[in-house]
Write a structure and sequence with these properties.
43% of the residues lie in helices and 30% in strands. It is built from three helices and nine strands. It has a five-stranded antiparallel beta sheet with strand order 4-3-6-7-9.
Length: 276
């Protein structure tokens, strides 16, 4: 009995000693876990930078990137100024084209004026050198005994050069007075000649007076009408046609019908045209 009591007392006295290793092991395990948790937190703390006076040397990659950046900035700066220069050049080109256009415009006007001046000089020379052919005088003659009316046209070249291929047609006829329609006379069947400067030629024409024509002319119901058509070519090869019309009528000349007499016909019209 005493032995069992002794075992129980020994166990109670040595029990706490047996528990101490377990408690120590548990305590150490708990501390290890806290260190494992705290250590990563401490690793996330910012690293302190140590200030030194030694210069930092950039790497080759950093130098290359810096140089590329500087080159791009320089290119951008030059691109801007090139744009400004291009715009300025374009404006100067437009202004230059405007001056060129004005110069060409004034040059063309000067050329036109010069051409007009040359044309005027040529026309002046042509007028100075061309032939001028026209009637110098037209005389009529009434013969009471024969009862005929005669008219003679004197044609002259007033120019300084000959009139080539000259031909004329002089026609005397009765017309109702006042004259409303001019007779159409041509030179198609006339002979061609050369009429030199100051040279004259005459074209007589006789018209018999029949019935009461004389009384009708004296009372101004009819008239003697003389048509003159002249065609010629000048030294420049230009062709011309001259037309003239003259007449006689009225009581003012009634004294002329009683005896043979002569006089000058009244000029009615005259035209000049250049033929193609």
């Amino acid at each position: 009995m005493r032995g069992s009591h002794f075992q129980i007392a020994l166990l109670l006295s040595t029990g706490p000693l047996l528990w101490l290793p377990s408690l120590a092991l548990a305590n150490s395990s708990t501390k290890l876990t806290e260190r494992q948790i705290v250590k990563p937190l401490e690793a996330k703390k910012p690293v302190s930078v140590v200030k030194t006076n030694a210069p930092l040397k950039p790497t080759a990659t950093e130098l290359r990137e810096f140089r590329d950046l500087m080159a791009q900035q320089e290119m951008a700066r030059w691109a801007f100024w090139m744009f400004i220069a291009s715009v300025t050049g374009s404006l100067l080109t437009i202004i230059g084209l405007g001056f060129v256009w004005r110069t060409l415009h004034h040059t063309r006007r000067t050329a036109d004026y010069a051409e007009q001046g040359l044309q005027q000089n040529q026309n002046f020379i042509n007028k100075q050198l061309r032939a001028y052919v026209g009637p110098a005088a037209v005389n009529y003659h009434y013969n009471a005994e024969s009862g005929a009316f005669a008219a003679t046209a004197t044609i002259q070249n007033y120019g300084s050069t000959p009139a080539y291929k000259f031909k004329s047609n002089v026609v005397l006829q009765y017309l109702v007075y006042p004259i409303d329609v001019m007779p159409q006379i041509t030179c198609d069947e006339s002979d061609e000649n050369t009429l030199f400067p100051s040279m004259q030629t005459q074209a007589p024409n006789v018209l018999p007076i029949q019935g009461d024509r004389l009384t009708q002319i004296q009372t101004s119901k009819f008239c003697f009408f003389l048509s003159i058509v002249l065609e010629y070519e000048d030294i420049m090869g230009l062709k011309y046609r001259e037309k003239s019309g003259l007449y006689v009528t009225g009581q003012a000349n009634s004294v002329l019908w009683n005896s043979s007499h002569g006089g000058t016909m009244t000029f009615l019209y005259g035209t000049s045209e250049e033929l193609a």
